[in-house]
Specification:
This protein is 34% helix and 22% strand. With 76 residues, it is of the alpha+beta class. It has a domain of 52 residues. The protein has a three-stranded antiparallel sheet with strand order 1-2-3, with helices on one face. The radius of gyration is 12 Å and the shape is globular. The chain starts with 12 loop residues before the first strand and ends in a 12-residue tail after the last helix.
Length: 76
Amino acid sequence: MYMEPHSKHHRPHFHAYYQEQIAIFGIDEIEMISGYLSKRQKRLVEAWVELHQDELLEDWKLLQAGKSPVPVKPLR
């Protein structure tokens, strides 16, 4: 997740990168919005979002307020 100055996004989301693959995932409704990840990587990202959905939504709010997000633990 990152903030783009002077650019409000309407739906909470983040970008996921794996090797040459890139996808955008919604946080409020856990789903891949666009892009591509292999089936295994997509499942891992969805599991991670499910575990950290509240934290991700809080980070989204911080970014929209121009503040820095709090790091979220990776899936282990």
